[in-house]
Amino acid sequence: MKIKGPLYLLTAALIWVSSFIVMKNAFDFITPASLLLIRFLLASIILSILFFKQIKTFPKNRIVGCILTGFCLCIAYYVQTWGLSYTTPGKNAFLTAVYCAIVPFLSWLIYKHRPSLYHFVAAFICILGIGLVSVENLSMQIGDLLTLIAGFLYAVHILMTQHLSDHVDGKAFTTFQFYGATILAFVLAFLFEDLSIIQDIQPTIFLQIFYLAFFATAITMLCQTLGQKYTNECYASLILSLESVFGVIFSIIFYHEVLTMKMLIGFTFIFVAIIISQTQLSFLRRSS
Description:
Layout: H1 4-26, H2 32-50, H3 52-56, H4 63-84, H5 89-96, H6 99-111, H7 117-134, E1 135-136, E2 139-140, H8 142-164, H9 170-192, H10 203-230, H11 233-255, H12 261-279, H13 282-287
Antiparallel strand pairs: 1-2
Helix pairs in contact: 1-5, 1-10, 1-11, 2-9, 2-10, 4-8, 4-9, 5-8, 5-11, 6-7, 6-8, 7-12, 11-12
């Protein structure tokens, strides 16, 4: 059934986008590291239950790599969440997605795999888009800058995952990764925040955090895994890249974000750059 894969991937993209709005609302009641601590802890418990069988047989000598990858993931989430405190969900979603254009160049730096011409074009278009979205009076807002740093960290995380998860069960790898993220989130919350704030969280906020942990982590991971099983890599990338577009739409509807023509053009540039970088326009060559 050809529609099955795209539906799974579309569901994952929609849930991911909704998490930006949920996190933005939660900041009125909880600090970033504490929010991530609860989210990662709940996600770890959920994934441990779902993939207990795979965890038991996971190679012990690969666990450290999983934990380190989880540390990188936590830092990326933390910086992105911190940035979200100072910008809108729509801008946060789009600017984070620039990792798609960064990955090929990091791979070039580390593995000496030279990017294609499409990647260079995508990077140029992406830079133009970032300038239109973020730069005002020759300066960049702190929230946008933090979000871009998060995008770079997500690119590093992707390469770490690609390198360290080779020839091991992906579900167990992801679970151990969340163990590492939980540990680092606890350290950040303990050192820089007041953990007692967790005791004062209202039940409705716990519901939002559970949504982040269960739907925006466990369910989306399953949807992405199943979606990519039934969809080729090119079209999977296209569908998942819609996350940035949905982010703006959700931000307008639920957060009342106001788009200027300059921002709209910038978002369009970034989205085009993501598509070029992820697919190298192979879908156009196939249809011709």
